[in-house]
Design goal:
Length: about 200
């Protein structure tokens, strides 16, 4: 009697691990360094959608057509420090279209917004398969290196949507960081820095 129960538990555990691996696999979306510029000082990064499906990438408005990536790590004597900002989303109803829209914000958990405070929503831009978008990252010569990344949202398959609640529980059991469904971080592998020399 104990053997069949043990086999069922082992099979369920293997299925759960396979589901976590299969559903957590990143699409072929990448961010790469294209070039450094001396004036204005900075670096040009390219986000490329090499997948077969459109994605939505998040960016902050900064006066450029593509906006600015939302993730940043700064190098200091203790290593890489991450911003304390966290990504939050809110679903709102668009009264003119009658459709629900998801809005994204960066918030500091140590300093939550006050009642009535207006938060600037992040841009949620679509990037079609095989397409790319370029970002300009301002850099001051001689400052410590930084790493840049952003968050993209991938459309979930029907199977992934159905298994999402089970997947969240399994990730919690194994203490794997959970994100909102379909959200994936993508980072430029190179650290960015400009030397003082011309």
């Amino acid at each position: 009697m104990k053997k069949p129960l043990l086999l069922v538990l082992v099979a369920a555990l293997i299925a759960a691990v396979c589901a976590v691996c299969m559903l957590s696999a990143q699409l072929s979306v990448s961010m790469s360094l294209i070039e450094y510029r001396r004036w204005p000082h900075g670096a040009k990064l390219r986000l490329t959608n090499g997948s077969q499906r459109p994605i939505g990438y998040l960016a902050e408005e900064d006066g450029t057509p593509a906006g600015s990536p939302i993730l940043s790590l700064q190098k200091n004597s203790a290593g890489w420090t991450r911003s304390s900002l966290t990504l939050r989303s809110v679903t709102c109803m668009n009264v003119s279209t009658g459709k629900a829209t998801e809005l994204f914000f960066l918030m500091d958990p140590a300093n939550p917004p006050k009642t009535g405070q207006v938060l600037a929503a992040l841009w949620d831009r679509e990037l079609k398969p095989g397409r790319s978008v370029d970002f300009f990252i301002p850099l001051d010569p001689g400052t410590p290196p930084k790493r840049i990344g952003t968050v993209y949202r991938a459309a979930q398959s029907k199977l992934a949507a159905k298994l999402q609640s089970c997947l969240v529980r399994v990730k919690q059991w194994f203490r794997i960081k959970t994100t909102s469904p379909g959200q994936v971080e993508v980072w430029c592998p190179e650290s960015l820095a400009l030397s003082m020399a011309p």
